[in-house]
Amino acid sequence: MSSLKEIKSRIASIQSTQKITSAMRMVASAKLHHAQSMTEKFLLYKDALEKMVNILQLPADSTQGAPTPQLSSPSSQLSVLLIPISSNSGLCGAYNSNITKATLQRIKELESQGQRVRLLPIGKKIAHDLQNKGLDCNIGYFNLLERIEKDSSFAEVTFLVEFILQLHQSGEINQVEFLHHHFKSMGSQVIQVDNLQLPVDNSMQQEESQSPTINREQSTFLTEPSPGELLTLLRPRLLNAQTYGILLSSLASEHAARMMAMQTADENANELLKELRLLYNKTRQQAITNELIDIMGGQVGKN
């Protein structure tokens, strides 16, 4: 049985650790509310932009129930840029390990389909894990989430999208996939794959700009310049908005996962403290009982 001093030392150590987990939980909660606020405000812009692009790319003879044409080329996709997103630090449960497992699984799936995979990890944890696996990665944007959270900079995202478009225009890639945690609720973050819809090639863009395709009767606004020219301008903005929305969702998921992990650690610490205090009281009572027995035994011996 442990001595009273050892038990007391363990109680003090757990209480000290509990102060740290409680502080980290409060910090994660504040960051989560900030990320949620950023996401809610940005979604208003993103939804309006998507609605505008969808209206502009409606063919003149379409109906309102017709599907929206894809922004990406329908050609066979042989080279994929996979962008997994993790956190820069740990202590957020299985958040990072789940992303690593999902990334490795997705790489196997794409390679089994005959597609070449290029990796562009965002987050120190996933970049470190992939490099440890011996995989070739472009780590130029691994610290992107930290820069976005620090100053809410949208310019950082435009640099990433411009780099992606350069790879697409040079023919190095023809598909982009973001693998990330999607924030659904405080206790639910689901890993999902989002395809970034790349623009069509330049020849198709020129045809669009020369021939307006908008159905003016269905549109709620007039356009100047032509719908094709507006699409050429708005599609890069839409790519920026989609990418920024994915990063904000990942950021909120990270803080929610860390908050839940710290809350679980706090609850486990309370349970452990209860057990240790009970053990301390039992050990102390046993020590007192033994001392009384010794005293009584010595007194009887004298008599």
Please characterize this protein's 3D structure.
This protein has 7 helices and 4 strands; from the N terminus they run αβαβαααββαα. The protein is an alpha/beta fold. It has one domain (31-259): Pyruvate Kinase, Chain: A, domain 1, CATH 3.40.1380.10. The protein has a 4-stranded mixed beta sheet with strand order 2-1-3-4. A hairpin with a 2-residue loop joins strand 3 (175-185) and strand 4 (188-196). The longest helix has 76 residues, at 227-302. The radius of gyration is 29 Å and the shape is elongated. The two termini are 34 Å apart. 26% of the residues are buried.
SSE blueprint:
Layout lengths: L3 H53 L22 E6 L10 H18 L3 E4 L4 H9 L11 H8 L3 H15 L5 E11 L2 E9 L5 H9 L16 H76 L1
Parallel strand pairs: 1-2, 1-3
Antiparallel strand pairs: 3-4
Compute the average pLDDT: 84
Q: What is the number of helices? A: 7
CATH superfamily: ATP synthase, F1 complex, gamma subunit
> Termini distance?
34 Å
The total domain count is: 1
SSE string: HEHEHHHEEHH
CATH class annotation: Alpha Beta
What composes the largest sheet? 4 strands, mixed
Radius of gyration equals 29 Å
CATH topology: Pyruvate Kinase, Chain: A, domain 1
Helix content: 55-70%
Summarize the structure.
With 303 residues, the protein is an alpha/beta fold.
Q: What tags apply to this protein structure?
A:
Pyruvate Kinase, Chain: A, domain 1, about 60% helix, 4-stranded mixed β-sheet, single chain, alpha/beta, elongated, about 300 residues
